[in-house]
């Protein structure tokens, strides 16, 4: 009997060097790519958000809302491409967040917002609006410095630590819990009048020292001028010359004013066990590897005593790298478990040599997939790893079909080792390609999902489609050559193989054959059962029996307590409330420690 053979596939069998070159290229590309793929928790995504923030020192939340937010929102909503506008008014600050449609040109969006803001007349005492374009930064860890020391020392040490972290390769470090410092200059109105000095002249002289200065306010017969600056500016202001007398004497600002450093009202403070604390929020950009950045941070922390001394305590929490490593390790273990099951099934149903070459297609296809992931800008994260595990059982389907049919042609049709793989690949090409295309077609719609969700789940179709294409290449161009040249063994099968094949053939010809025959003879009943099961599954979803959650929310390992004080509450009242909350949390922690059940 004449069997049809594909000339293209036969070429790779006859010239096995070509097949080996393709296999080696797939392996090398994968090995080079896997080390360059970023490791992170979730895929990167673009942030189509622009924030507008306006400070108005001393203004209440109601004044901020009436004089800033209500003027700002009507100008921002009509901007082209705006999806949502949300605002927040708190004492001294008004902020508005503008969310644009997916794919909008953010540079144009910023220009439109700047134009809209420039048309608004804000209160005279309000500061210049700040327009910030949202950027993607992923949390790496949070570092907390605490101790029975002054905030000034924490400020100094935290800034040193921040500088070291940035020099070590960290993309972004924000210091939280440090109150904004101000220099308060109180000038007596009577003293200024006695020396014939106008407040405008004094304010202009101060402006020469710093551009960030408020106009000042009268209170109790004195002029108060606030300027944001460092402590060293206090001495500079004290030595500021205001007037020269005809006799050669000088009048300094320190002679007529009380100059001191103070903390800006409304600043956020942090504490640990009653001691002042400062937090450094360490984040990475899109181009950085979370595990590498975390490793650099750990090296800096290990050497922290040389930077901040022994008095200040250093702690970390919410370290994403540990969570990433745990999740990646869990997924890899599950993947390896699935791989072992796949290999066991292969060796159980196929001959030893065929099973070995079919199994080798799994790592080859996966390595080629890493190359596709690198080229397409993907990363190793929870979503892409889930896609790899999902494709684990699919990837060997093609090779199993070709390998098993090649084995059948050799044993049952008595074809030689060189001809059987070619004929098997030729005869199975259309069914295998069709099966691959139907699977790809099922995942292609995921590419069409827009927005942040679409960017996150895009890793799944990228990975699955890449694995299937790589498996197809390995199955038709590499596997037949290996089966033809390395599966020539004609020795007798083992006793276990003979026993298993006998029992499995009995199952095929007995129970399984009768069941298939029954379903065919009563095909309308079979069809109705399938339709009924589909209706039941849809009904369970629509009826709420099976709940839907796109991203399940796991139980958190951090407890956050929020409480709200009435407007006008003092800092001491807020502190007392915080102490009561801490006592309750300590009692709860002690109770769960003693009796966790």
Secondary structure elements and their pairing?
Elements: H1 7-14, H2 16-34, E1 49-55, H3 61-76, E2 82-90, E3 93-100, H4 106-118, E4 130-133, E5 138-146, H5 151-167, E6 172-176, E7 181-188, H6 189-194, H7 199-209, E8 217-219, E9 222-228, H8 232-238, E10 241-244, E11 250-252, H9 253-256, E12 257-263, E13 270-272, E14 275-284, H10 290-302, H11 305-308, E15 313-317, H12 320-349, H13 352-375, H14 382-395, H15 397-411, H16 419-443, H17 451-457, H18 459-486, H19 495-521, H20 523-542, H21 571-594
Antiparallel strand pairs: 1-3, 1-4, 2-3, 5-14, 5-15, 6-14, 7-9, 7-12, 8-9, 10-11, 13-14
Helix pairs in contact: 1-2, 1-18, 2-13, 2-18, 12-13, 12-14, 13-15, 13-18, 14-18, 15-16, 15-18, 16-18
Sum up the structure in keywords:
5-stranded antiparallel β-sheet; Alpha-Beta Plaits; 597 residues; Multidrug efflux transporter AcrB transmembrane fold; 21 helices; single chain; 5 domains; alpha+beta
How does this model look, in words?
The protein has 597 residues and is α+β, with helices and mostly antiparallel strands. The chain has 5 domains: 7-37 and 328-542, Multidrug efflux transporter AcrB transmembrane domain (Multidrug efflux transporter AcrB transmembrane fold, Up-down Bundle); 49-133, Multidrug efflux transporter AcrB pore domain (Alpha-Beta Plaits); 138-177 and 272-322, Alpha-Beta Plaits (2-Layer Sandwich), CATH 3.30.70; 181-263, Multidrug efflux transporter AcrB TolC docking domain, DN and DC subdomains, CATH 3.30.2090; 559-597. 56% of the residues lie in helices and 15% in strands. The strands form 4 sheets. Strands 5, 6, 13, 14 and 15 form a 5-stranded antiparallel β-sheet that branches. A 4-stranded antiparallel β-sheet has the order 2-3-1-4. A hairpin with a 5-residue loop joins strand 10 (241-244) and strand 11 (250-252). The longest helix is centred in the middle third of the chain and has 30 residues, at 320-349. The radius of gyration is 36 Å and the shape is elongated.
């Amino acid at each position: 009997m004449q069997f049809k053979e594909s000339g293209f596939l036969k070429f790779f069998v006859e010239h096995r060097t070509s097949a080996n070159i393709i296999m080696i290229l797939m392996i090398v590309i994968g090995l080079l790519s896997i080390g360059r793929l970023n490791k992170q928790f979730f895929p990167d995504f673009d942030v189509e958000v622009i924030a507008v923030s306006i400070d108005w020192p001393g203004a209440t939340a109601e004044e901020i809302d009436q004089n800033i937010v209500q003027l700002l929102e009507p100008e921002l909503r009509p901007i082209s491409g705006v999806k949502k506008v949300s605002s927040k008014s708190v004492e001294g600050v008004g902020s508005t967040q503008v969310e644009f449609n997916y794919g909008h040109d953010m540079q144009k969006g910023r220009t439109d917002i700047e134009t809209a803001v420039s048309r608004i007349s804000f209160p005279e005492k309000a500061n210049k609006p700040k327009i910030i374009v949202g950027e993607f930064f992923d949390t790496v860890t949070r570092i907390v410095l605490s101790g029975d020391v002054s905030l000034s020392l924490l400020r100094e040490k935290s800034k040193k630590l921040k500088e070291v972290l940035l020099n070590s390769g960290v993309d972004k470090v924000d210091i939280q819990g440090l109150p904004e410092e101000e220099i308060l200059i109180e000038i007596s109105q009577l003293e200024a009048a006695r020396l014939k000095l106008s407040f405008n002249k004094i304010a202009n002289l101060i402006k020469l020292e710093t551009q960030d200065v408020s106009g000042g306010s009268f209170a109790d017969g004195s002029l108060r001028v606030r300027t944001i600056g460092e402590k060293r500016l206090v001495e500079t202001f004290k030595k500021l010359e205001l007037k020269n007398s005809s006799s050669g004497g000088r009048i300094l600002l320190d002679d007529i004013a009380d100059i001191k450093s103070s903390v800006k009202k409304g600043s956020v403070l942090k504490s640990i066990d009653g001691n002042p604390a400062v937090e450094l929020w360490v984040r990475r950009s899109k181009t950085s590897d979370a595990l590498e950045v975390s490793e650099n941070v750990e090296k800096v922390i290990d050497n922290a005593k040389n930077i901040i001394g022994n008095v200040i305590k250093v702690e970390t929490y919410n370290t994403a790298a540990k969570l990433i490593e745990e999740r990646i390790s869990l997924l890899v273990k599950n993947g390896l478990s699935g791989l072992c099951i796949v290999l066991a099934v292969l060796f159980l149903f196929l001959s030893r040599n065929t099973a070995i070459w079919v199994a080798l297609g799994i790592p080859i296809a996966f390595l080629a997939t890493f190359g596709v992931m690198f080229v397409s800008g993907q990363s190793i994260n929870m979503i892409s790893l889930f896609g790899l595990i999902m494709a684990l059982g699919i990837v060997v389907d093609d090779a199993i079909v070709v390998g098993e049919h090649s084995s059948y042609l050799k044993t049952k049709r008595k074809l030689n080792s060189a001809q059987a793989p070619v004929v098997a690949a030729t005869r199975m090409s259309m069914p295998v390609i069709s099966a691959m295309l139907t699977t790809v077609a099922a995942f292609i719609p995921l590419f069409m999902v827009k927005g942040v969700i679409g960017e996150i789940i895009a890793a799944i179709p990228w990975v699955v489609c890449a694995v299937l294409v790589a498996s197809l290449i390995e199955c038709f161009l590499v596997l037949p050559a290996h089966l033809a040249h390395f599966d020539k063994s004609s020795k007798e099968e083992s006793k276990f193989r003979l026993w298993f094949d006998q029992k499995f053939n009995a199952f095929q010809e007995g129970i399984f054959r009768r069941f298939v025959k029954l379903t065919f003879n009563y095909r309308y009943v079979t069809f109705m059962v399938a339709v009924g099961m589909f209706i039941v599954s849809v009904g369970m979803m629509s009826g709420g029996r099976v709940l839907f959650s796109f991203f399940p929310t796991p139980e958190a390992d951090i407890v956050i307590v929020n409480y709200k004080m009435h407007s006008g509450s003092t800092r001491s009242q807020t502190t007392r409330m915080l102490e009561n909350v801490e006592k309750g949390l300590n009692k709860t922690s002690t109770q769960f420690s003693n009796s966790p059940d």
